[in-house]
Amino acid sequence: MTDIVFIRQLKVQTVIGVFEWEKAIQQTLEFDLELSTDIRQAAATDDLQYTVDYSAVCAAIIDLCQQPHELIETVAEKVAAMVLEKFPTKAVKVTIAKPAAVPAAASVGVSISRGNW
Predict the structure, then answer these.
(1) Is 58 helix (H, G, I), strand (E, B) or coil?
(2) CA separation for the pair 116, 103 (Å, rounded)
């Protein structure tokens, strides 16, 4: 059995990009995450300690984005590794959208899956 704790459209302002003008501004990244976990003990006890605290995951992602990066691929890998290391999940899917990157597109981005699904 796999249960999913998810986060949708977490918006984070960060310095992201390979061009010099991008390194001088903040841009919005939008994060969607799916975390594979077992919620049965949390549900039975009504106790947060037995599940993934999505608020803590969001805070950790915001903190990670305080440092500048050039590629959203790098950010995706760092987020996935951090989530697998710090939170009770055996697998994570991370999607990062960069809405303003290509004017003709609503959004562009990357999606990765790490861990044992």
Answers:
(1) helix
(2) 36
Domain-by-domain residue ranges, the chain? 3-115
What single letter denotes the amino acid at residue 15?
Answer: V
Q: What is the DSSP letter of 103?
A: T
Query: CATH says 3-115 is which class?
Result: alpha beta
User: Which is the catalytic residue, given 11, 86, 93, 98?
Assistant: 98
pTM over 0.85: yes
In which region does residue 55 sit, left (phi positive, over 0), alpha (psi from -120 to 50) or beta (all else)? alpha
Identity of the amino acid at 10: L
Reading the chain (117 residues) residue by residue, the pLDDT tens digits are: 689 999 999 999 999 999 999 999 999 999 999 999 999 999 999 999 999 999 999 999 999 999 999 999 999 999 999 999 999 999 999 999 999 899 999 999 999 999 998
**Whether residue 86 lies in the annotated active site:** no
Specify the 3-state DSSP secondary structure of 27: strand
How many whole angstroms separate alpha carbon 42 and alpha carbon 33? 20
